[in-house]
Amino acid sequence: xxxxxxxxxxxAFLFAQKLALKNEVPLHVCFCxxxxxxxxxxxxxxxxxxxxxxxxxxxxxxNISFHLLEGNGADAxxxxxxxxxxxxxxxxxxxxxxxxxxxxxxxxxxxxxxxLIQVDAHNVxxxxxxxxxxxxSARTIRGKINSxxxxxxxxxxxxxxxxxxxxxxxxxxxxxxxxxSREADKSVAxxxxxxxxxxxxxxxxxSFLDTRLKIFATDICAESSAMCPGI
Length: 231
What we know:
The protein is built from nine helices and four strands; from the N terminus they run H-E-H-E-H-E-H-E-H-H-H-H-H. The chain has helices spanning 11-23, 42-61, 73-83, 97-109, 127-130, 138-146, 149-152, 175-180, 198-212, and strands spanning 28-33, 65-70, 89-91, 116-118. The protein starts with 10 loop residues before the first helix and ends in a 19-residue tail after the last helix. It comes from Leptidea sinapis.
């Protein structure tokens, strides 16, 4: 888990559970947390890690183990896979250079008999299904995406309580220390107007749809909007 840090409405998570159910094995979720990411401040890390804490709670309710690993995926994940005899790795999709370099590192270090499967859990139409080349404008890719919506615009099934329990317990996570130990600018305080996690995101979306969407076109200030103007 990396870009799409949620349990529900997550095709990568759903595929991982489907694979685990087919093979009758436990399901584990790993998030590789780096000490520093570009110019991210403690505000970004606080929001991320508090959201991950809620992911861990939901995983626990579903009999799925959540593991917070220190370091990037290429450094932290391959040895963890070996140590715990993991049979396959499913990851989400991030097209940015730094996360792509982590994935390349994981690919090189994983043993050849451990499949690495990438699922685009971020886009309705998976990036590689939408186009097989680099696109330079919304105009050129819009039609390609629209032509595939009937195939990919489907309801999410729920992630279910996993019937196969892990044979080992996750390492305890000190969530506050995870925040404080990041190498980030601490002068930028965490926000209070928006809460982290899937449920809080759904509340914010519902508020936008119920009260603000109808005035979106005429009363929008891109610099201060609480909802992405690109939506």
